Amino acid sequence: MVLADLGRRIRNAIGKLGQATVINEEELNAMLKEVCSALIESDVNVRLVKQLRESVRKAIDFEEMAGGVNKRRLIQRSVFQELLKLVDPGVAPYQPVKGKANVIMFVGLQGAGKTTTCTKMAYYYQKKGWKTCLVCADTFRAGAFDQLKQNATKARIPFYGSYSEVDPVIIAANGVEKFKRDGFELIVVDTSGRHKQEAALFEEMLQVSNAIKPDNVIFVMDASIGQACEAQARAFKNCVDIGSVIITKLDGHAKGGGALSAVATTHSSIIFIGTGEHIDDFELFKVKPFLQKLLGMGDIQGLVEKVSEMGLEDNEELIKRLKQGFEFYSLFRTPPSLTILVHEIVGG
């Protein structure tokens, strides 16, 4: 099931507690069975699902529970906290520093959408006022430079590459040096995609890393491989220090939940997720807001950030009301574009 379906099933399972006249062990087990079944169908590792179930059961002790306690709310909070743990690697995400050269090296398997994701990240920061650029050090795949060149030109992002030089280490080093000299703040370096068993390509990746000394190495991962993401992430980590992960194709694959939870077990921070083919189908990954949105709880902070991007940040009253979580129907007195945005964020 795609992530939206996963969120719907978990939300419905928890929602059934609200219809129960009595909240007891039987109702708890029925809810947990549905939640766990949904997670397993989304390719979340069975061991992790079992751990979630046992943790919730341990937190909810009906015999020890005081009489006036809201059992329904306690169970909901416990499930939410355990779901957070499932996708939270417990590692602070890397954040580039504006005003200095941040060299970001992209690595990943062939077909994961690495080159497209490089452009998406450069475009994301460009929209926020950063001076960004792209370097194509992928000399292995035919047409790699043409693809990056086309993407960069369309997004109006400066790029560097070569049709004559075959050594990716030289291309990467020259490109980074040029853009540093020109005062660029975010230098995104695309490298050759590889398979887990290709030792020569892993050696090349290490050489590129040693040459450009990146501030962050990002592993681009395809959500469609589900919990297999864990083995792939570990294979890359053994070769070069992976700082962050971006998961692509989360919009249409059944194994998205498995991919997210698998990455969390490697303690690599997920910094962005790809949610579509377009250049702006690219979201900053924040665990709590992501889960809130997945479960239909809305994302107030995300809405505040979107309002700022739309140039409405001067409307102090609107920002204040958003942060306080006011009734959403009052938004119909605001611009239509913002009303549409609210429906998008809360899944309406």
Automatic annotation (TrEMBL):
Source species, domain of life: Eukaryota
Start and end residues of each SRP54-type proteins GTP-binding domain: 101-296
Localization of this protein: Cytoplasm
Recorded GO MF terms: 7S RNA binding; endoplasmic reticulum signal peptide binding; GTP binding; GTPase activity
Ranges of residues in domain Signal recognition particle SRP54 helical bundle: 2-87
Its EC number(s): 3.6.5.4
GO cellular component: cytosol; signal recognition particle, endoplasmic reticulum targeting
Chief localisation class: cytoplasm
GO biological processes: SRP-dependent cotranslational protein targeting to membrane, translocation
Pfam families named among the record's database cross-references: SRP54 (PF00448), SRP54_N (PF02881)
Keywords, sorted A to Z: GTP-binding, Hydrolase, Nucleotide-binding, Ribonucleoprotein, RNA-binding, Signal recognition particle
Protein name, per record: signal-recognition-particle GTPase
Organism: Meloidogyne enterolobii (Root-knot nematode worm)
